[in-house]
Design a protein that fits this description.
single chain, about 90 residues, alpha+beta, globular
């Protein structure tokens, strides 16, 4: 088990994730803004959005930050245990 997996099982993970997001470079922040702006036009805050093939959760996170209620599903059994709490 790596550090990320160990943290995900604790209440500290959301704070650690937020700290990580703040330390990313400009390119990563710009990509997140682009992703949120693009997908945010397809739903309004409070809508339910399904992320099928969620793997790492970057799209689910963008949807949630735009106000959606996200149901993230990873159908590939090889990746199911790699959950990411938002």
């Amino acid at each position: 088990m790596n550090l990320k997996q160990a943290l995900m099982a604790t209440p500290l993970y959301p704070m650690a994730r937020a700290a990580y997001r703040m330390t990313r470079g400009t390119a990563a922040r710009d990509e997140e803004k682009r992703l949120r702006a693009f997908y945010g036009q397809f739903f309004k805050p409070g809508d339910i959005v399904y992320d099928v093939g969620a793997l790492q959760g970057e799209y689910a996170e963008a949807f949630a930050l735009e106000g959606a209620t996200v149901i993230a599903i990873e159908p590939n059994p090889a990746y199911r245990n790699r959950r990411q709490a938002l």
